[in-house]
Amino acid sequence: MAKQRVIVSRRYVLDASALIDVLFEGEQAVRIEECMAGAMVSAVSHAEVVGELARRGADLATTITDLHELDVDIVPLDRTQAETAAQLRAEAPDGAALEPFVAAALAQIRNATLVSA
Q: Is 6 domain-assigned?
């Protein structure tokens, strides 16, 4: 009997740092790009990226176009994700940014691997 190949499909969630690294062709870009096809991105992470690039002087329209060209699924923030992110953040040091916890919550809820730069 011939051996059957089992293909394991991994699901990924990209946080803002991962997207920024790809857009700026950073040190982790190649590794992150391998996970991008069909990856999920929280709407909060998406907003963080747009805001960060605008803060760095990037043209907003170009930034949004570049993000739309990436093969990722933007996932709206829902109550479960928000509450899970809040619980994760409550265990972090004071002053920790919310976005990484939102991305981690999405990964946890969707049983996906979190990708960060």
A: no
Contact (CB, 8 A) for 105 and 85:
yes
> Smallest Cα–Cα separation from 115: which of 103, 105, 102?
103
Q: Is residue 66 part of a domain?
A: yes
**What count of Cα atoms within 13 Å lies in the side-chain half-sphere of residue 52?**
17
Count up the domains in the chain and report the number: 1
* pLDDT tens per residue across span 49-59: 999 999 999 88
- Write down the pTM of the prediction: 0.85
Long-range residue pairs from 60-66, CB within 8 A, at least 24 positions apart, any chain: 66/23
CA angle, 5 then 39 then 117, to 5° = 110
Q: Does the residue 103 lie in any domain?
A: yes
Task: Look at residue 63 and tell me if it is in a domain.
Answer: yes
- pLDDT score of 102 more than 90: yes
What is the predicted pLDDT for the residue at 10? 80
The domain of 72 spans: 12-115
